Protein: Ribulokinase
Amino acid sequence: MQQRNDPAHVVGIDYGTLSGRAVVVRVDDGAELGSAVHPYRHGVMDTNLAATGAPLPPDWALQVPADYIEVLQHAVPAAIRAAGIDPASVIGVGTDFTACTMVPVTKDGTPLNELPGLQDRPHAYVKLWRHHAAQAQADRINELAGQRNVSWLPRYGGLISSEWEFAKGLQLLEEDPELYERMDHWVEAADWIVWQLTGNYVRNACSAGYKGILQDGAYPDRDFLAALNPDFSGFVSGKLEHPVGSLGSAAGTLSEQAAAWTGLPAGIPVAVGNVDAHVCAPAAGVAGPGRMVAIMGTSTCHVMNAEILRDVPGMCGVVDGGIVEGLYGYEAGQSGVGDIFGWFTAHFVPAELTREADDRGMSVHDLLTEQAAGQEVGAHGLLALDWQSGNRSVLVDHELSGLLVGLTLATRPHEVYRALLEATAFGTRTIVEAFTSSGIPVTEFVAAGGLVRNRFLMQIYADVLGMPISVIGSDQGPALGSAIHAAVAAGAYPHVRDAAAAMGRVHRNEFLPDSERSQAYNALYAEYTALHDYFGRGGNDVMRKLKAIRRSARLVREVSA
Structure:
């Protein structure tokens, strides 16, 4: 560790789905001294375009990039004030972002939606990670990759997601070719925000590898892209390819403009961008192999390091140095977790339960959890599939949808709520078993993210997995992870592993499985697996057919209007 004047601080900025959070962290020990959150003014546009009110098609999810700048202007100064530190003591900044979240921009980084006359064009806006409207393009990419037996496909579990860079880029080309031509760069939001902070555009190795199909130093070639669409042949060379920075290195230094936004000193190092889930691993002190970190929020991302390269069915990717240098970083995930719980409480809870929660000064989530915790495993007679946002791992199919089996006239809301909690745990067990059976054993399961505050949910996960669950020792895992990378970029530590050991923290074996409940869940999990394979592996395509019928019905309505 280099000499420095103490105390030194770093700032981590975490861009989530609905808001951005800044955290001030002490470099020596990772102590979090102050934080602030700023919600995105336009939120997520998934039904209507904010600028015009025009309806959006199904499965779209857009955002306004100017909202990300407001996080720098509001959350960072507020976090500095909350920490009570001198801004001059900040030696570095790190950021992370949801992924894959894509911004179409001009040569100087201006988002297309900010150009005159383009505010009414949906494809001019940010495509959020949960934009799933490029499934048809993803299907074609997967079909062609399978036909050609390309070397990179197994690195992604055999399937490319509709959430990722190529599928979304192909959708943009085919649905708005004029905008595609006007776009100079197709940029991950993780890299765009660093560009705004430094004036330098540097691709980060994490997004490029996991979301951009960069394997062994190469992207899919022109011939492959031309076979998808002749006008797509130059996508990599003309829109996507750019110098890639390693994680923990500096992308540049804070510009005068960004210093004015944030109140931080101009000229301090800004770390190469990163993905919110992957950057969370060092925050939990995880920089070695075998320990899976599950970042549990609106969705769940599962990341882990390993010393060996293996093909894991349905994984989102394996990238050399994708989490820390010197190890293979693996990723899997569930597209909907907290989103599913929120959807249920928003639309299917009767007014009397909402009033009861209000009267008792608790959230509806807490009330349903309290009621559900009083039941024995299986007493509700229900089983659910956790696919309300499609399936990311292990099926990689966003045409799939949710399912609930066992409803009767006696079923109560808290019972459905518990079945949904359990379904997400079953989905995680499916992922863990896929890794273990592929020769990448999961030796420890570490939970992070907002959902770890629900202790009943965490106990369900321990019982379903049949293994202890450790919990990250921070409520701001991604922001702390970004701060750790900022410390490395600033030269305070030589490697992310060293910074993680000093600044990260975890509470080991916080939740232990109960053997009787685990046995009961084994029986339910067997039935979950049967439903999972029947609806997810071609036994019945009703979910895809229903989505097609829905799209047709909406199209008829729009034409009629």
User: Anything to note?
Assistant: The longest strand covers residues 19-26. The CA atoms of residues 152 and 208 lie 13 Å apart. Residues 413-437 form the longest helix (25 residues).
